[in-house]
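Practice problem: predict the structure.
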Amino acid sequence: MRFLLIEDNADLALSVTERLQLDGHAVDWAGDLKQANQCIQSMNYDLILLDIMLPDGSGRDFLNTQRSTNGTTPVIVMTAQNSVSDRVSLLDSGADDYVTKPFDFAELEARCRAVLRRRGGSAQNIIRFGGMEFDPLAATLYINDEVRPLRNRELRLLEILLSSKERILSKAHLVDRLFSYSEDPSENAIEVYVGRLRKKLEGCSAQIETVRGVGYRIRSE
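Answer:
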């Protein structure tokens, strides 16, 4: 998944970015609202992590603008404001969740997972498709009762494909979803990860189909 982190504290931003990247997510960091708006205009994100107190304005204004312009990307607010009225106000403004600073990284990760599950219309962790069971939290694939561990990028690629079942996703789209601005992968990297994931899917009816000249999609035969 691709996240946008809007946070002016460089040390905290680095720590959050490194933690989320360990989970296989691509993270773009914006230190102020100007940078955040530039990112939003050029990229689609699966989740936004938003600080409230920023050098050039309030994160509330950013959130209000997103919702008033029909922006539907989930937003988790990271705030030091911990009164009930502040939290209620943020949720009423369109935040999907919040975490109070200082926070534990495990809690932040759990809230990210919960918000993404809700966005996908599921309250469960296990995804079943084509004779397989996929647990993204445990980074594990089950086929014919056999456990097949997944590496981070394999995990995120499978998540992306399963979130768009039967739809063709271009290599460029997959690069955007898997890698951040700070990385410079070629589209050939996608071929490598698709190849690895295909091997992990052997033995079930779910297959990653190559649509020549267009991209990839996951289907169940």
